[in-house]
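Trying the structure run again after the queue cleared.
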Amino acid sequence: MAVVKSPLNSMDARGSVGGVTYSFTRGGYTAKRKPKPTRRLRAAVNLVRSILGYLARQWGELSNEQRESWGTWALTHPGTDKFGDPFIMSGFNAFIMLNHHRMRIDPGEAYEVLPPEDPPASSPLVLSAAAGAGDPGDVDLTWTETGIGIAADFWEIAVAGPFQSEGRVAVETMYKVYAFVAGNVLMETIEDLDEGMWYWFKIRYIDEYGQVTAEQVAQTTPKVTV
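Done. Tokens:
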């Protein structure tokens, strides 16, 4: 690491001072304070791993008929790879994927031994993001849907940013899940964002069986202090 004079006034500053981390990313020069608790991400990773391990063990407890039903479901529900191309997953992967979606929202939820028979009740049509009507740093999200969402399902909202300027394409790997909203709600306020910075937002519908829909995205800057 380079040593700089008066680091807090230098564009070359890197590292942490007084709990604030100075860095340079694709979004530009930033100064960030880590959220509390600082080990939240590590705890989330452990939860994901524990769910995956648990489901892998439960797959071994399924009957041959139950496994075949998951294989049939997978054949008629192709996934999408990182290039946007369809692919056919295995019955094992379908079982893990759907049950993981539902159990990471509610770790106390029991896993499903059979795949769902019906598609999700809704999916996002248009997502709109605007500077919030409340406190500085807020963004208000509203969206329309193709069906009629139900309270037992969820809208998953994720946020990417901050960025110093408006962008054409969001960086997919930078999205972090912000909240799960009941499936019969069509609005949410995102709070405590950096004023003057740009953020991407995306939303998708997850039903109670773990089925997910395509995503809709939007971007804006939060409300600023007047």
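The longest strand covers residues 154-163. Worth checking whether this holds up in the mutant runs.
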